[in-house]
Amino acid sequence: MDEQVEEAGEQIDECLVIGPIGDRLAPKGSPDRIVYEQGLEVFEEVIVPACDTVNLAPIRADRVDRAGDITDQIFRLLRDAPGRYCGSHRSQPKRDV
């Protein structure tokens, strides 16, 4: 896997973004859908613009779209990318068991 992508003739480094995934197919207003929408909002409004300013191509871990085993691709990105990673997370509420 190439850790760089070509954009307008220029090579830029990929930046793997790992965060809450949620479920885009969950019913609107459900906790899983809210997590999905909030994660997407942070990605689009915070992470993408920040990466653009330092010439990085952000790739959400749940959107790796190359053919092959997704787990292997994520591990390869973690291992081979130039060492620049963004993290997006929110703490999960504790649930009574």
Tell me what you see in this structure.
This protein has 97 residues and is an alpha/beta fold. It has one domain (4-87). The chain is 35% helix and 22% strand. The protein is built from two helices and four strands; from the N terminus they run ββαβαβ. The chain has helices at 31-53, 70-80; strands at residues 4-7, 10-18, 56-60, 85-87. Strands 1, 2, 3 and 4 form a four-stranded mixed β-sheet that branches. It is flat. The model is unreliable at 93-97 (pLDDT under 50).
The average pLDDT score comes to: 76
Oligomer: single chain
Contiguous low-pLDDT stretches (5 residues minimum) are 93-97
Principal-axis shape equals flat
Order of SSEs: EEHEHE
Biggest sheet, in brief? 4 strands, mixed
Strand content: 15-25%
What's the gyration radius in Å?
15 Å
Measured as a percent range, the helix fraction is 25-40%
What is the count of distinct domains? 1
The number of strands is 4
Distance between the termini: 42 Å
Q: What is the tally of helical segments?
A: 2
Structural class: alpha/beta
Please give the structural blueprint.
Layout: E1 4-7, E2 10-18, H1 31-53, E3 56-60, H2 70-80, E4 85-87
Parallel strand pairs: 2-3, 2-4
Antiparallel strand pairs: 1-2
